[in-house]
Every structure is written in C-alpha cells, then in structure tokens.
Design goal:
Pfam families: PBP_like_2. The chain contains eleven helices and 13 strands. It is of the alpha/beta class. The chain folds into two domains: about 120 residues, Periplasmic binding protein-like II (D-Maltodextrin-Binding Protein, domain 2, 3-Layer(aba) Sandwich), CATH 3.40.190; about 130 residues, Periplasmic binding protein-like II (D-Maltodextrin-Binding Protein, domain 2, 3-Layer(aba) Sandwich), CATH 3.40.190. The chain starts with a helix and ends in an 11-residue tail after the last strand.
C-alpha cells in the first residue's frame, strides 16, 4: 500500500514539474511571440512602421498592429485600459497615471525613443520663405484658416499649443485634415496656405514618396525672438535651438515582460536607435561608435 501511495505522489510530482516547466517556457517565449496593438498618433507612423518591420524580422512570430488615432484619443484609450501600449508625444500626467491604475490596477512604464519636430510647409511656388514665431502665435490664437493642421487634438496641435503657451477655449476652431498626406496635397494646391505637420512625414529623404513631396512643397524656417532663422535640422533638434521639437514616447502598461516590453526595449536599443536615425529623426539614446582597427 505504501509503495502505491509513493508511486502516486511521484506521478503527481512529475506532472507538477512538467506543468511548471511548460509555464516557464511560455513566459520566456511571451516576449517574442503573440499579438499586440499599439495606439499611435498618425504623425509617428513612419518611424513606428520602420521599427516594427525590423523587430518582426528578429521575432517572426510577433504580430504588432497599429491603431492610428489623434493623440488625445490614444491617451484616453490607454488610461482606460483599452490598449496596453501607446506611441505619443508626451508622458502621462500624475492624474492620468492614477486613472490608469484605478481602471486596470497596472502602472505604466515610459520609454523615450526619439526627438521629432513640428514643421511648417507650403508650396514651392509660394512667396512665403520664413515665418516669425510671434506672427505664428497670433495666427493660431485667431484661428487663421490659412494654417492647416494634420488633425485636431493631434500631437502636432497639442505640442504647438504647449510651446506657444496658448490658452485655447473649448469652442476654439482650427482648420484640420485627416493626415500629413492630405495637408501636403492641400498646401501644394493652395499656394497661400501653410501646413503644420510632423517632421517624420518628410524626414526619410530616401523614400520615393518623400522625394515626390519635396518636389512639390518646401519646409519653412522660423524666426525666433532674437531674429535667428532656424531650420528643423537634426543639429538644431539635438541642441534644442529649433523651438518646436517634440519627443516620442512609448507607454507600456503590460503586467509582465511581454511582447510590448520587448518592443520598447528594442526601440531603445542601439539597433532601434539606428533605425530612428535612418528615418531622419534625432535618436534619444546616443551610442558610442566603436571602430576596430586590425
């Protein structure tokens, strides 16, 4: 009888160990396979897509999808627990973090991966060759409809409001289209208009689509309060001289090291930051370049 009981417990222990090992294997594999949806402001789709393409080449069983929405809606979905990952231009506020925790019992991790910028564009045939920041502020304050945004409550609109320190009322109205592509085509046809989009829409100059756009439109430099003419170049973004820079954050509220955490780590790695650089943006992490001489 004692032998039978001992044998029974050995079988139970065996299945417990097998089950434990299987769970451990699943946990180890969770970071490189599965499915995740990232809420993303449309102005970041170019760099986001470039990162995902290379990430999936390393982890072919990973399925990363984007849900493009204006930034305010992305953040609303994130703090309500509808998505566990977001790519936006700002961190959560303390109050937003509390709402997220109350809804999901999860805290979030924020990873800054790049520096983008708001740029002003117009037709190449336009006589506009620069704009003073003071004039831009007045125009936006007075809802000048010659200025066209790539979306209401988008990261570009929100960042510009913060940078210009504007007080926007609830009934404030702007002229906005659905995305940067529409804005670019609009200003090309309407020579007196100025589009407000993200640099990421035009930064990858090796892209045939971007080359086509740059044959139709031009980026307008801004004139600061010291009468300096400043272009949104990478050195000016890096130094902070260009006044309308915006950061790109990955927000993650997963309850373990899963696929989203793996993607965040990849985006901040040396390989991910090289992709950011190739996309024509300023990487957040700067890595020392090592050259081996034989």
């Amino acid at each position: 009888m004692a032998k039978k009981i001992g044998f029974f417990y050995l079988i139970v222990l065996f299945f417990v160990l097998v089950n434990s090992c299987q769970k451990e294997i699943q946990q180890k594999e969770a970071y490189r396979k599965g499915k995740i949806t990232i809420g993303i402001d449309p102005s970041f789709l170019n760099v986001g897509s470039a990162l995902v393409e290379v990430f999936k080449s390393s982890y072919p069983e990973a399925q990363v999808n984007f849900k493009p929405e204006v930034e305010d809606l992305v953040i609303a979905d994130f703090i309500q627990g509808k998505i566990t990952m977001a790519m936006v231009s700002r961190n959560l506020s303390e109050e937003e973090g509390k709402i997220l925790f109350a809804k999901t019992r999860m805290r979030f991790i924020s990873t800054q991966i790049a520096c983008d910028a708001i740029v002003l564009v117009t037709s190449k045939e336009s006589l506009i060759d620069s704009i003073r920041i003071s004039d831009l502020k007045k125009a936006i304050e007075h809802s000048d409809n010659s200025y066209v945004f790539d979306g209401g409550n988008s990261s570009n609109f929100n960042t510009l409001v913060r940078k210009l320190q504007l007080n926007i009322s609830e009934d404030y109205k702007i002229t906005a289209l659905n995305n940067a592509d529409q804005v670019i085509n609009y200003v090309y046809k309407n020579k007196s208009s100025i589009g407000i989009i993200g640099l990421n829409a035009l930064s990858d100059t090796g892209d045939p689509k971007v080359k086509e756009y740059l044959n139709k439109i031009k980026i307008i430099p801004v004139i600061n309060f010291d009468n300096q003419v400043i272009n949104p170049s990478i050195p000016n973004l890096r130094s902070g001289l260009y006044p309308f820079t915006k950061r790109i954050f990955l927000l993650n509220s997963e309850n373990s090291f899963l696929l989203g955490s793996s993607f965040s780590r990849f985006a901040g790695s040396q390989r991910g930051q090289l992709i950011v650089t190739r996309a024509g943006l300023q990487p957040y992490f700067l890595y020392e370049r090592r050259v081996q001489i034989n």
